[in-house]
């Protein structure tokens, strides 16, 4: 059993006012590239933290600067070759060398206020599935002494915060009301989680080799793995300069890079609002597992009616029906390894789904959000990956189950009236 505790759904506010029995061991991983002055300022700020120095490890990971950065005594320096923008690989390298129970990721140009580490590490130290994003504010710090207290220098030289991000935190009550698209509010420049959970999720995807996107992809995987997403509004780190989205908005090259990032994420985050509306993603949002059918015709009606309601789903069928669905790449045999998904639907025996029924669509859209983890829709079990992951970790349920016994589903016999189904008269 992992140390710590958990809470239902995303209700991290149940831990408000609770402090760890002792300050956790924290490893701060600072990613750097050709920013010596900014790094000096960030390391000076880390030396002023209220979190005990004896419980703090600082690791700088250089992403291939022409010259190694200078770091003070007591700070560990790791380097990787300059093979493009490899922040994801740099963070993974730092995490692999870290000894702390809590990992805190910072960028070299993001300067923490004195209480930052204590406030960021509290939730992951209490609930190991907590993923905490700090409040990243912006200021023009250029030219200031590197040891100037950032809690004073930042407000004096403040630049606008991105309004979309402030609105996201406000409307979600600092991510307490997080949903399947709240990954958008997780920023790796100001991020903390337990070492255990980082390894469980699997680290950042090192195929990301351009600016942006790797933190959103990781946050989505973390959410699917049962993360408690939280915004620590009082854990402030100051970014030296404006937000990326606020710079040169009319620059076609910057807009093209943002489009490239968005296209890459459509395959990694296949949820509604992130995937294409018609084009299929490489990933799967929903996996349906059909256990049995009394005939090929019944299997066909079942799979066809399910895909009519959930066209982006992947369906796993018994091996005997592999040839029946060979032309549809969305259909796999049950002995194949299904892709990771946000939702798994277990269908014990073939049913026909009414195309106008709302219950299935609503269940798929809402399961895993709030405290809802499972929906029983007649014989169908609709399970969120978040609920299954928490159940596996803790050995008991931390999400609610909702039952709809009168769903618009018809059990199928060996002769389901296939011609009438296809023709529309049955």
TrEMBL record:
<dbReference type="Pfam" id="PF02709">
    <property type="entry name" value="Glyco_transf_7C"/>
</dbReference>
<feature type="domain" description="Glycosyltransferase 2-like">
    <location>
        <begin position="27"/>
        <end position="140"/>
    </location>
</feature>
<keyword id="KW-0808">Transferase</keyword>
<dbReference type="Pfam" id="PF00535">
    <property type="entry name" value="Glycos_transf_2"/>
</dbReference>
<dbReference type="InterPro" id="IPR029044">
    <property type="entry name" value="Nucleotide-diphossugar_trans"/>
</dbReference>
<dbReference type="InterPro" id="IPR027791">
    <property type="entry name" value="Galactosyl_T_C"/>
</dbReference>
<dbReference type="GO" id="GO:0016757">
    <property type="term" value="F:glycosyltransferase activity"/>
</dbReference>
<comment type="similarity">
    <text>Belongs to the glycosyltransferase 2 family.</text>
</comment>
<dbReference type="InterPro" id="IPR001173">
    <property type="entry name" value="Glyco_trans_2-like"/>
</dbReference>
<keyword id="KW-0328">Glycosyltransferase</keyword>
<feature type="domain" description="Galactosyltransferase C-terminal">
    <location>
        <begin position="183"/>
        <end position="226"/>
    </location>
</feature>
<comment type="pathway">
    <text>Cell wall biogenesis; cell wall polysaccharide biosynthesis.</text>
</comment>
<protein>
    <submittedName>
        <fullName>Glycosyltransferase</fullName>
        <ecNumber>2.4.-.-</ecNumber>
    </submittedName>
</protein>
